[in-house]
Amino acid sequence: MTAIVPYLEFARKAFAREATYREDVLTEVGSVVLRVYLLRQVWTALYAHNVAPAHLPYHAMITYTTVALLMSLILEVDGTRQIRTRVRDGSIATDLMKPISVPLFFFSDGLGQTILHALLIVPSLLVALLLVRVDLPDLPTFAAFVVSFALGYAVNFLVNFLMNLVAFWTLETFAIQLIVRWVSDLLSGQILPLTIFPAVLGRVVFALPFSAIYSTPLLIYTGIIPPARWATAMAVQIAWAACFALIAATVWKAAQRRVVVQGG
Amino acid sequence: MLAAFLASWRLNVLTILEYRANAYLWFAFTAVYHATAVAALAVALHTFPSMDGWNMRQMFFLYALWMMGHELHNGVLFGVVSVPDFIREGRFDRFLVRPLDALFQVITVPQATIPDGFLLAVVTFSFAAWLVHLRFTPVATAAVVLTVLGGAMIDFGISLAVATVAFWFVRVDALRWAVMSLEQEFTRYPLDIYSRGVQLTLTFILPFAFMNYYPASWLLHKAPGAVHLAPQVGVVTPLIGLACTSLAYAFWRAGLRRYQSTGS
Lengths: 264, 264
What we know:
The structure holds two protein chains of two kinds. Chain A contains eleven helices and no strands.
């Protein structure tokens, strides 16, 4: 059990570090609240002039959008982003010499930032509730949502970790990361529910791993995935997490052998 | 000054030629950034075919018009977004001791950027113009060119103002990110759908609506809509751009006078 102590300390450090930049934190809350406000107007205009899809009445869409934005406060944290700078300036070499698991170090650092961002959800939610009406699910549904969100968090962490490991092979990874992020925002269901994607595209997006990040928890929350299908939906999330964990472990092993000291 | 400007462009092009793979990656990023936005629009408009009287083709035209001004600014004047980094790292001080205007020096720091995104924007716009059957009469052509130039100036004025905030608060990453993403996300919809406060803000305070909404309403012969300005105001974008840049420059001068080095 003592093995976990240093990692808790890493998480605490990351939390304290992020909390120093108060204006940044306030800007983030403000930006999410503003998005909730503007997106409500966008959806209001779209629902006013068109026939609503049967499974997604107006209030369900507003709930989906608002919860997705609050989730993004947590899911946009990327603790593994430091890999890039650490490979660039060579400090990854000393990290590897320390008697800790480096991937777990990144995970705890990200977790520390995540906890700060999770606390941000409270003020954002309170202000957002003044602007929009969000449906509240019953307790079992909410519990299933939380479990599914945790699984989505794991998939998201592993995808980010894998992307950042590219830094061991080519030093410029920022563009790749941003590309994956934009594609992921669209295909994970963060921007739009995947259920409104047309025909074939709709089947493709559900078959991709990105849907495990936002879509599954959100569809559970809004009741589009009924309780009878919760187990299957979460099994798919677990399968993706396991699959990425396996790939990440393999790539991490190869990366350690490839550490090239950049000098300086 | 012209010689310095040309020399900085020579360095930009040489850097691009040296790091070709990197340049391709950043171009891919620009393409994906806009492609995901258009894809999200297309998916939403597939389920909800009309947005307050605007159809998918007209919405695509609206986006492409914004994209040209935005990418022109990104390709030529992107240097200002680095000001907060320069200040934090103490590198800003060197601009103040040299015999050229500090802002001019910031813009001409070689960034390894060429206006490749702008070329992509021109191609995208040509396609969008063809889709909405825009007739390129001399007047319409002049209006498009002036909109793009004025639009780039609006974009520049606002990013200069955001960068200037860094003279007071050193870390403005979150603010910059919020303004950039809100701009891309919400200028893609016609202004009519927003509440009056948002319409007034996007017209008079952060005049993004002049980058695309007003000129597009005029070019597409839309009835007067948002805040009851006649569609003809679409042609005043260059004046708005000039005003926006001048105000931002005055703010920048005030910031410079107040500036104290971080000492790092």
